[in-house]
Amino acid sequence: MKALAIIKAGEIKLVERDMPRMGTGEILLKIKYVGFCGSDLSTYLGKNPMVQYPRIPGHEISAVIEDIAADVPETFAVGQAVTVVPYTNCGQCTSCKQKRFNACRYNQTLGVQRDGAMAEYMAVPWQKVLKDEALSDVQLALVEPMTVGFHAVDNGNVTDLDTVMILGCGMIGSGAIVRAKLRGATVIAVDVDDSKLEVARQLGADYLINSTTKDLHNQLQTVTCGDGPTVVIEAVGNPVTYRAAVEEVAFSGRVVCIGYAGNEVSFPTKLWVQKEVEIMGSRNANPTDFEAVMKYLKQTNLDEKVLVSCIVSPEQASRAMEDWAKAPGKFLKILVKF
């Protein structure tokens, strides 16, 4: 079968791989669309320490069921449209014992620690397959990246009393905007790209700030009547935005960090001690986050294609990755159609 592989840093190409064989309790999927994630870009750039080459990327998946092995529940049937929860969990570490499977100490994510979904077929355990034939193939490929933002909003305990600033309006930030609005919060979207801020507006953001053309602090002081946002979600992974999150959050506010900063980040400890700020990480997503995103996509009037920068064939994927690497801020989501 045809597959896309990142051979080494800076090289991605089509390769031939053997068809996967189902084990007991597994489902064979025919892949429809797979999204490129920021972790895939890091792998391509040689900046992902969790990856060994060559690696088949991809964990944002839409597919149809091609075949079913033994010991799979009868609720699954050939031809059903599905997406996949792309994480593993050991069931024994401290996170798993608290049912926080998203933060499993030994997690292996498709396309990162193990080969992913950028191929014509893949076999996965039935427990990781989520079916919903009310969603389109494109919508199913957008589920996983949106869940990460949904999970961050849950970690921040966002309510309708909160003003939430979201730093970074890529796919993960977009998911956070949607979830925060569903919770009834006032949302401030911050990015350096006006096209992403326009998408944020369509997703329901109440205020838009381009931090390269406007003074972020002054804008926030005006919007929040001098208090600052009660919740800040960092979805960039940059020392500048990490510091801004702590500097701008309100007293007794919450900061939720999703992005991985490439360099160490230093803070004046006075900021979070005097403010008594809660700072927490947010990793991956839980099954309930997947359910919430799928429910949203079925109920929204939003054209999900506003979240998609381009759809390419496997043959075009290498060029698309090169373009993304040159201008990462210009792309929201690249989908590969198999």
Automatic annotation (TrEMBL):
<dbReference type="InterPro" id="IPR036291">
    <property type="entry name" value="NAD(P)-bd_dom_sf"/>
</dbReference>
<dbReference type="Pfam" id="PF00107">
    <property type="entry name" value="ADH_zinc_N"/>
</dbReference>
<keyword id="KW-0560">Oxidoreductase</keyword>
<feature type="domain" description="Alcohol dehydrogenase-like C-terminal">
    <location>
        <begin position="172"/>
        <end position="297"/>
    </location>
</feature>
<dbReference type="GO" id="GO:0016491">
    <property type="term" value="F:oxidoreductase activity"/>
</dbReference>
<dbReference type="InterPro" id="IPR050129">
    <property type="entry name" value="Zn_alcohol_dh"/>
</dbReference>
<dbReference type="Pfam" id="PF08240">
    <property type="entry name" value="ADH_N"/>
</dbReference>
<dbReference type="InterPro" id="IPR013149">
    <property type="entry name" value="ADH-like_C"/>
</dbReference>
<protein>
    <submittedName>
        <fullName>Threonine dehydrogenase-like Zn-dependent dehydrogenase</fullName>
    </submittedName>
</protein>
<feature type="domain" description="Alcohol dehydrogenase-like N-terminal">
    <location>
        <begin position="24"/>
        <end position="131"/>
    </location>
</feature>
<dbReference type="InterPro" id="IPR011032">
    <property type="entry name" value="GroES-like_sf"/>
</dbReference>
<dbReference type="InterPro" id="IPR013154">
    <property type="entry name" value="ADH-like_N"/>
</dbReference>
